[in-house]
Design brief:
The chain has about 140 residues and is of the alpha+beta class. The chain has one domain (about 5-130): RutC-like (60s Ribosomal Protein L30, Chain: A, 2-Layer Sandwich), CATH 3.30.1330.40. Helices cover about 25% and strands about 25% of the residues. The protein has 3 helices and 4 strands. It has helices at about 20-35, 60-65, 120-130, and strands at about 5-15, 45-50, 75-80, 90-100. The chain has a 4-stranded mixed β-sheet with strand order 1-4-2-3. The termini are close together.
């Protein structure tokens, strides 16, 4: 079994620009990431969080850093480029991990209003989850 660096993308939306609403959205997104990928935080190389310009109450990376075993993960927050008419109050991540699973076996969580950003991934993930659950790859 060969371990490789893989990327996981995901996104969600916050109900409002408050610390509580952003914390709830980020926590839900990272819970979904860890549960569906059976991810060991020690396998995470780095995580980049982006937020739309209407979210500035708290850094998503600060919320991630509070999670068990995320304190040594390299985390970065950046503001997403503004495009007129794009999804508001959106939080995205790009996470790099070490894993033996193939790229097609990775679950990319898109939650809340962000489900519409990658409907192709949502449909593919639903069908693959029904046909074969993700295997554990913890060391």
């Amino acid at each position: 079994m060969e371990w490789r660096v893989r990327a996981i993308r995901g996104a969600t939306t916050a109900s409002e620009n408050t610390v509580g609403a952003i914390r709830e959205a980020v926590t839900e997104l990272l819970d979904e990431l860890e549960a569906h990928n059976q991810l060991d935080p020690n396998e995470i190389i780095s995580a980049i969080f982006t937020t739309t310009r209407d979210l500035d109450a708290v850094f998503p990376a600060a919320i991630a850093r509070e999670r068990p075993h995320w304190d040594n993960v390299a985390l970065l927050d950046v503001q997403q480029m503004h495009v007129e008419g794009s999804l508001e109050r959106c939080i995205r991540f790009l996470i790099h991990i070490n894993t033996p699973v193939s790229q097609c076996e990775i679950y990319h969580p898109y939650l809340r209003q962000a489900k519409n950003l990658r409907p192709d991934w949502n449909l593919a993930q639903i069908s693959s989850t029904v046909s074969s659950p993700v295997r554990s790859h913890r060391r």
